[in-house]
C-alpha cells in the first residue's frame, strides 16, 4: 500500500486505534477532535499532526489541508456531524476516498441517499456475532 | 401553508407566533421536553418533541404535508441534515437552514441547501447603520455576492487629484459612476476625483473593506 495523506475526525476509541495503526503503516495522518484531551491516547510513536477544534468550522478543515487529502474519515459519535463533514470532503474538496461512521444504523438510509460510503461498527459487530452463532 | 420550525430556545417560539398570526399552520420540533410543554401552552402551534434530523420525527410532524421547513438549531450539522432529510425523504422543496458559522453559508449553498447566517445579517445591518460619514449606502445584489457602495468623497480622501488609472484598485472592484454637481460622469482612466463627488463603486464582499480603506483612508 502506497503512502497516503489521511484526515481523521474524531479521536475516540475507534479513531485512536485507527490513527495509531495507520501511522505505524507509514501514512501521514492529521487527527482532529474538539477535545484536545482525546489525543492523550495516541501512541508515543505517532508522527502525524493533531488539531484541536470543531471540524464543522470550515477554517479547521482548511488548516488540515483538506484539499490535499487522499482519504477522509468522519468518525465522530454524532451522525449529523459525520454526514456534513463527509459531504464537505466529497463534494466540495473532492477528496478521492471518503468514509463516514454511522452510529445509529437506522440512519443508514440518509447516508445512502447522499451517496456517502459508510461504516457502521454496530452492524459489523452484529454480523460477526451472527456468523459465530451460526458457526 | 404548513411550516415546520425545528430548533430550541426563543427563536422557534417567536417565529411560530409570527407565522400563526399570518394564518399559517405551524409545527415546531424541539428536542427539549420542558420547552415543548411550555410552548404548547402558549401557542396554537403543534409541538413535537424529538430529534428533527430523524425521519420518524419529521413524519410525526406531518412533513409529507409541509410547504416549508426552517431549521434553526444551534448546530450547523443538524440544520443541514434536517434540510436534506426534508428534501430527500419528504419532498419538501423549500428549506431554510440557519448557519451559526457564517463561513458555512457558502458550503451549505454548494451542497444544495439554502442557508442564512444571522451573524452576517446583523453585521451587514451594523455596517450599514454605523457607517462613517463617507459611505452613503451599500446595496447588496445577487444575494450579497456583489456590493454597490455609494460614497461621498471628503477632502481627506486619499483618491483625490490622481488620475483613476494610477490608483491601486483592489481586485474585482470598479468605479461605476460619479455624480458631480448633479452631473453624472462615467469615468475613464484619466478621470480625476474631487472632494464632494458622490461615487458608486462595485465590489465583492471579500474586498469591500479594502475598497472602503482605499476610498476613505480609514478602516472599517
Question: Quick one: CATH class of the largest domain in chain B?
Answer: Alpha Beta
In whole angstroms, the N-to-C terminal distance of chain B is: 42 Å
Which two protein chains have the largest interface (Cβ within 8 Å of the partner's Cβ), and how many residues from each?
Answer: A-B, 21 and 19 residues
Q: What share of residues of chain B is helical?
A: 25-40%
CATH architecture of the largest domain in chain B: 3-Layer(aba) Sandwich
CATH topology tier name of the largest domain in chain B: Rossmann fold
Average of per-residue pLDDT values of chain A: 93
The arrangement of helices and strands of chain B along the chain is EHEHEHEHEHEHEEEEEH
Structural class of chain B: alpha/beta
Number of folding domains of chain B?
A: 2
What is the residue-mean pLDDT of chain B, rounded to a whole number? 88
Work out the radius of gyration of chain A: 15 Å
Q: Count the strands of chain A? A: 6
Distance between the termini of chain A: 33 Å
Helix/strand order of chain A: EHEEHEHEHEH
Query: Which percent bin holds the helix content of chain A?
Result: 25-40%
Low-confidence stretches of chain A: none
Q: What does this protein structure show overall?
A:
The complex is a heterodimer of chains A (135) and B (220). Chain A has 135 residues and is of the alpha/beta class. Chain A has one domain: NAD(P)-binding Rossmann-like Domain (Rossmann fold, 3-Layer(aba) Sandwich). Chain A has a 6-stranded parallel sheet with strand order 3-2-1-4-5-6, with helices on both faces. The longest helix of chain A is centred in the middle third of the chain and has 14 residues. Chain A is globular and about 45 Å long. In chain A, 36% of the residues are buried. The mean pLDDT of chain A is 93. With 220 residues, chain B is α/β, with parallel strands linked by helices. Chain B has 2 domains: 119 residues, 3-Layer(aba) Sandwich (Rossmann fold); 90 residues, Alpha-Beta Plaits (2-Layer Sandwich). Chain B is built from 7 helices and 11 strands.
